[in-house]
Amino acid sequence: MKKAALLFIAALIITASIDFIWPFTTERADGDEFEHDLNTAEMLTYQDPDFGFTVRYPSFFALQPDSLDDYTGNVRLSYNNEWATIVLECYALRNYSQSLKSGMDSLAQVLHATGHILGSDYFILCGPQYENGSRMEDYSYYSRFVSRGKLWFVYTMVYPDRYHNHLGRLFKEIDDWQVFEDQHTGISRADKFMLDAQRKGYKKKRAVFNNISYITK
């Protein structure tokens, strides 16, 4: 009887251990599979028809057609599976800042940034993701803001925290992003668009912090 009781307890412990380990094993395998797909995927290029900026993205990310209608100079791409949603987005914003650092400091406060990098013509912000003023549990963002003429061009990624170590290729894409294939032409085209828009009374009404809130489950 005592032996049978010990065997029963041992079986319970083993079962509980399997239940505990299995979710982590499944999540780890899913992250590893995603990383493999990411590292072997063909990188496609999207070019914005209005501003002319370009952005590279993995071929298995889906273009969200409705993002093209949000406002001029915006594109959103996403990846979804049973466990995670990853969003890539590019857009243009009017630059009202007096300096690169003042722009970074202002946006860092709005976007609840916990980390930043300041470059010669760009800055990078990262931190917990918020939507409508509320923290999105277990999601973060990573954004590069590049100054070109009178505009900020932004390439941002919103991702689940547990995928962080599997996203190296996308972090590098954002870090190395040059906005325009031809930098001089790009600046001229961006400035011309803003002047034309001002003449027509065009105003961008969307708040900055809403531009990085596109997670849907």
Which key phrases capture this entry?
single chain; 217 residues; alpha+beta; seven-stranded antiparallel beta sheet; 9 strands; 37% helix; globular; disordered N terminus
Q: Provide the spatial order of strands within the biggest beta sheet.
A: 3-4-5-9-8-7-6
Biggest sheet statistics: 7 strands, antiparallel
Radius of gyration: 22 Å
Residue stretches low in confidence (pLDDT < 50, at least 5 long) are: 2-27, 197-217
Number of strands: 9
Question: In words, what does this structure look like?
Answer:
The protein has 217 residues and is of the alpha+beta class. 37% of the residues lie in helices and 31% in strands. It is built from 5 helices and 9 strands, in the order αβββαββαββββαα. It has a 7-stranded antiparallel sheet, with helices on both faces. A two-stranded antiparallel sheet has the order 1-2. The longest helix has 39 residues, at 2-40. The termini are far apart. Mean pLDDT is 77; it is low at 2-27 and 197-217.
Can I get a quick summary?
The chain contains 5 helices and 9 strands, in the order αβββαββαββββαα. The N terminus and C terminus are likely disordered.
